[in-house]
Structure formats: C-alpha cells, structure tokens
Design brief:
The protein has 439 residues and is an alpha+beta fold. The chain contains 14 helices and 23 strands. It folds into two domains: 3-338, BirA Bifunctional Protein, domain 2 (2-Layer Sandwich); 347-438, Rossmann fold (3-Layer(aba) Sandwich), CATH 3.40.50. It binds adenosine-5'-triphosphate and magnesium ion (3 copies). Pfam families: HGTP_anticodon, tRNA-synt_2b.
C-alpha cells in the first residue's frame, strides 16, 4: 500500500479526551474515529489489526473444536423472558421496540439465542459435544464508557457456547476453551493470566477471567509470580485428550491467581512475599461453566444413553477483540508510539523513501516495494513528499515491526538502512539483499 493513497488520518496533537495511552495512540495513529459516547468507527489501519486479531481467535477456536456461526445483533425480548434475564439484566441492556411494538433488544450476549438454536435441532447425546461461536457486535449501555475501545458501548465479542450431556463433558469443554485462550493471547503477543473470577449476570459456579497486566487496567488482581514465565502449550496440543488438557488446566490454576471480587486473604497470606504480584489488569477474556442455568428454563434437552431426557450442561466463553487491540497497545508501546507484535501488525514493514521525487530514490524504492511484495511482505510504502523527520515520526507512531529506510546517499552506495521498531537496532544492508532478508 502506498501511503499517498492510504486513508490514514494521523493526528499531530494529543487528543485531549484520551485518558490512557492506547486510546491516545489509536486516535493519533488514525485507527479510530469516535462517533459518540462509547461508539467508534474503525478506520483502515485499525480494521486491519482487528481482523488479524479475529483471525487468530478463529484459528484457535476452530482448533479446539468450536464451529463458527453468526447470530443477529437484534434479539427478541421473548427469549430473554424465557430465561428470566429480561428483567434481571438491568440498564446495561439497550431495549428497543419495532414498528409492531414488539420488545426487542440489542444483544449484550447470546446465551438465550444459541440455546434456542440448540433446542430446535439437537435431540440426542450422540450429537454432543457441541460448541458454537460467533464474532459479532454487542451493545452494553455502560454507565461509564471510557478509555476508547477498552470500554465502549458497542464492541466486538467472540462468544462461544458449549453443550454437553453432563458435568463431566461440560468440564472438558471448559478446559478446551481454557487452553485455547492461553494460546490465543500468546499468539497475539500477550501474556495472559487466568484468574478465578466472579460470574456476574452470566451466572454459574466455575469461571476464569483472562487478565493482561497493565497499570491502566480497571481490575485489581492478585497472582503468584510463577505465572510470569509459565509456558503456553504449543500448536500440537491434543484437544482430543481430555486428561492431557485437564492437566494443563491444573498446572495453570494451581498457583494463586484471583481478581478482587474472588480474592481470598487467607490463601494470599500463604504465598511468600517475594512471589506476590498485586497489580492492575485488563480483562480480555472470560469463561463460564453454568450447567443448566439456561437449558432448564428454556427446555434444551437431549436423550442420553440411558434413554432418558437430560437438560444439557452448558458454558460460555467470551473474548473482546476490540478491547484486546487496545490492551496490546497498553502493553506494547514507547514514548514515540505503538510497537506492534508481528502477528497483529497492520503491515509487516514501512518502506521509507527519504526523498520522494528524486529519480534514483524513487526507482530504488519502487523496485524494493515490488520485490518485497513479491516475497509475500505486506508493505506500507511512504512515497509522500513529507520531510524525513515527519516520516520517521509517523513510522514510529504507527509501530510497524520494521522500517526500511532509503535515502540518496544509501542509494548511491547501493544500500538501505533497516530499523527494528522494538529494539531500535539499525543495520545497513545491500538493496539487493532486502527482499531475501524478509521474504
Ligand atoms: P467488564 O468487567 O470489563 O465490564 P464483563 O465482565 O462485563 O467486562 P463479559 O460479559 O465477561 O464482560 O464479556 C466477555 C468479554 O467481552 C470481556 O472479557 C471483555 O474482553 C469484553 N468486553 C466486555 N465489555 C466490554 C466493553 N464495554 N467494551 C469492550 N469490550 C468489552
Ligand atoms: Mg461489564
Ligand atoms: Mg468483568
Ligand atoms: Mg467478565
């Protein structure tokens, strides 16, 4: 992509409304446009990152055996009356009426709707286990939308729902999602810590929040230092092996870790002082086992091997991809801007033409752009007529992992300079070696 053609509305000034660094950087780097309280448009570069995050989430959901669907954003109040949550959910739910004065709502979550899908089709335990997920916009009328997409009113959520014959299977489904969350957050470049958590309006009795530590996090969290260097299972993890998956979950739930609501002073006292991490954290994912909470009132049941009918045992599993993008920036930036982990970077590299309009520089850059693209790299080519200082500032701000810098002196010597955004390390290599280096 040529920067001269790219819709990247960079802001020179720090937006005053942005209280935390991720919000500030997302606005400055032209990723977002605020449309109203807690409501944002994702501009091209923001959308690209969001898509990359979603692609990783999808891969890890699919790998763990979940199947993607897509449910509507607007739901009928009837379903929510069946579960009893229509009245319980409170003011966070946006209630709407259609032209026939039927009560509708903009979904804050989808337990009821997916349970309705399930009960319409599935009759036998032989069709279990089943896990259905979607990635869809949610609306919650937050009391205090703030911090940009970190706590917005309309936000993207990946929500998965598992159905099993009984607790044992449901626990195995929970464990698979637990492991897939560890892998998902690691793949987007983040260290997440699963913590015992409160279940809130979703309900249930077993629940973990996946927390990324950050000073600006809204939750107070407490965990053992061991979590900071625990090894996440690889891509070859065997989701068909319930016992193996359960062992991984056991390892990851043995050291102390709890959010404020579930914090247990006695257990905390037992942790050696030097091992205590009391910090702030961002909730990027949350998993719940809630058994028959929805299947019973909504009549979602299957025939078991015993020939009898059983209400299915369920769980639900959420990740906020839009919040996750902000959380990645909270965890990975410096005073000059964003530092994208490679897996979610909107482009692989910035190709910086220091003297656009100079025939030799243009030719060398055009050739590099073609060669890098042919080698499979996604390049943002700064072909604008800005001065070099401005170009470097933009490249640092938008945080692509690599900068390839081409100026008149380098071209004369047949060389380009390569800068690593994260380490700041610079290296000079022959122009002819650049494509091979990254291809
Ligand atoms: P919070 O405690 O931050 O209000 P929650 O516990 O209400 O979140 P869940 O119902 O557990 O949220 O939803 C699953 C995931 O959706 C959360 O872990 C988070 O990543 C994301 N999420 C929830 N609310 C928001 C929001 N207002 N803006 C952006 N993402 C959100
Ligand atoms: Mg909430
Ligand atoms: Mg919460
Ligand atoms: Mg939660």
């Amino acid at each position: 992509m040529r920067l001269s053609r790219y819709f990247l509305p960079i802001l020179k000034e720090n937006p005053r409304e942005a209280e935390i660094v991720s919000h500030r950087l997302m606005l400055r780097a032209g990723m977002l446009r605020q449309q109203g309280a807690g409501s944002f448009s994702w501009l091209p570069m923001g959308k690209k990152v969001l898509d990359k995050v979603c692609a990783i989430i999808r891969e890890e959901q699919d790998r763990a055996g979940a199947q993607e669907i897509l449910m509507p954003t607007i739901q009928s109040a009837e379903l929510w009356r069946e579960s009893g949550r229509y009245d319980d959910y409170g003011k966070e739910m946006l209630r709407i009426q259609d032209r026939h004065e039927r009560d509708m709502l903009y979904g804050p979550t989808n337990e009821e709707m997916v349970t309705d899908i399930f009960r319409s089709y599935v009759r036998s335990y032989k069709d279990l286990p089943l896990n259905l997920y979607h990635i869809q916009w949610k609306f919650r009328d937050e009391v205090r939308p703030r911090f940009g997409v970190m706590r917005s009113r309309e936000f993207l959520m990946k929500d998965a729902y598992s159905f099993d014959l009984a607790y044992e299977g449901a626990r195995a489904a929970y464990n698979r999602m637990f492991v897939s969350y560890l892998r998902t957050f690691e793949r987007v470049g983040m260290k997440s810590i699963p913590m015992r958590a409160d279940t809130g309006p979703i309900g249930g009795d077993l629940s973990h929040e996946f927390i990324i530590l950050a000073e600006t996090g809204e939750s107070a969290v407490f965990c053992h230092r061991d979590f900071l260097d625990m090894k996440v299972p690889g891509a070859d993890v065997d989701y068909a092996d319930d016992a193996g998956i359960a062992r991984i979950v056991k390892d990851w739930t043995t050291p102390y870790a709890a959010t404020e609501e579930m914090h247990d002073d006695k257990a905390w006292d037992a942790v050696a002082d030097g091992d205590k991490v009391a910090a702030r954290g961002i909730e990027v994912g949350h998993i719940f086992h809630f058994g028959e909470k929805y299947s019973k009132p909504m009549g979602a049941k299957v025939t078991g091997p015993d020939g009898k009918e059983h209400f299915v045992s369920m769980g639900s599993y959420g990740i906020g991809p839009s919040r996750l993008v902000a959380a990645i920036i909270e965890a990975s930036h410096d005073e000059n801007g964003i530092i994208w982990p490679e897996a979610v970077a909107p482009f692989d590299m910035a190709l910086i033409n220091m003297k656009a309009g100079d025939a030799e520089c243009d030719r060398a850059c055009d050739e590099l752009y073609a060669a890098l693209s042919a080698a499979g790299c996604d390049v943002l080519y700064d072909d604008t007529d800005q001065r070099p200082g401005g170009k470097f500032a933009t490249a640092d701000l938008i945080g692509l992992p690599w900068q390839i810098i081409v100026g008149p002196r380098g071209v004369a010597a047949g060389e380009a300079e390569i800068k690593n955004r994260k380490t700041g390390e610079r290296e000079t290599i022959p122009l002819s070696a650049v494509a091979a280096r990254f291809g």
